[in-house]
Amino acid sequence: MRLHDKVAIVTGGDSGIGKAIATVMAQEGARVAIDYVGDPAPANALVDEIENFGGRACAVQADISKPDDVSRLVSETVKHFGKLDILVNNAGVEEKYPFLEMPFEVYQKVIDIDLTGPWLCSQSAAKQMVRQKTPGRIINISSVHEELTMPTNAPYCAAKGGLRMLMRTIAVELAPHGITVNNVCPGAVDTPMDEKLKQDKAQYEKLLKEIPLGRMAKPEEIASLVCYLASDEAAYITGASYVIDGGMTKKSGSL
């Protein structure tokens, strides 16, 4: 198992891509802290699911946009499992408005969760890894939109673009400590959040035509790439963005 004896935090780990990442990491031998906000039922159900196949997991409620919550997320993980080796910054939101109509509070919410959250989590996790004097992995779930524009989604694109430079910069700063930092940049992923889109046949078919492979990614495919970057096999990889989009950005001429 590639992640045997590793301890990981997955933010927003109770659904969608985060759930897949937490599950695959546990299957690969990691002990996983599943961060969630709000209803604890999905996170607790995932903990039960992981423990049923012999893995180890715990659920921690923490709003990643709040410094005190982030500190508690890391400290509770270490209290539960004894250390921290891997952070996956997965939690994120997006709300679409035309730029001229974008409410400031929506902009602020997206930036707080999609950019400030990874900054806070990365700093807190890195401090713990440095205290331990052990190598570590920080992996951000970014997006093709760290490079590719998306009209009506300016805050999300701004956050992901900022996440790209945050990753590159702290990768250099943290390298002397043996901590690698990388981004995984999905295109369209088939998660419950996309059910409404799939029910709109015209919009769904339009999306698929933009993807050379002709389908959306499975969450498990994103999780497999994350697990590789979290493993010892990827110890020499840092400061990189990995696009996993079925060829979408190549067809658009970007990246």
CATH class descriptor: Alpha Beta
Q: Give the spatial strand order of the biggest sheet.
A: 3-2-1-4-5-6-7
Number of strands: 7
Number of helices: 9
Strand residue percentage: 5-15%
Task: Give helix % range.
Answer: 40-55%
Calculate the terminal CA-CA distance, rounded to whole Å: 33 Å
In the CATH hierarchy, the third-tier topology is known as Rossmann fold
* CATH arch. level architecture: 3-Layer(aba) Sandwich
User: What's the CATH H-level superfamily name?
Assistant: NAD(P)-binding Rossmann-like Domain
Low-confidence stretches: none
Which class best fits the helix and strand makeup? alpha/beta
- Inertia-based shape: globular
Q: What summary fits the major beta sheet?
A: 7 strands, parallel
Number of domains: 1
Structural commentary:
By secondary structure, the chain is of the alpha/beta class. It has a single domain, classed as 3-Layer(aba) Sandwich (Rossmann fold), CATH 3.40.50.720. It has nine helices and seven strands, in the order E-H-E-H-E-H-E-H-E-H-E-H-H-H-E-H. Strands 3-2-1-4-5-6-7 form a seven-stranded parallel β-sheet, sandwiched between helices. Helix 1 (16-27) crosses helix 8 and helix 3 (67-81) packs parallel to helix 4.
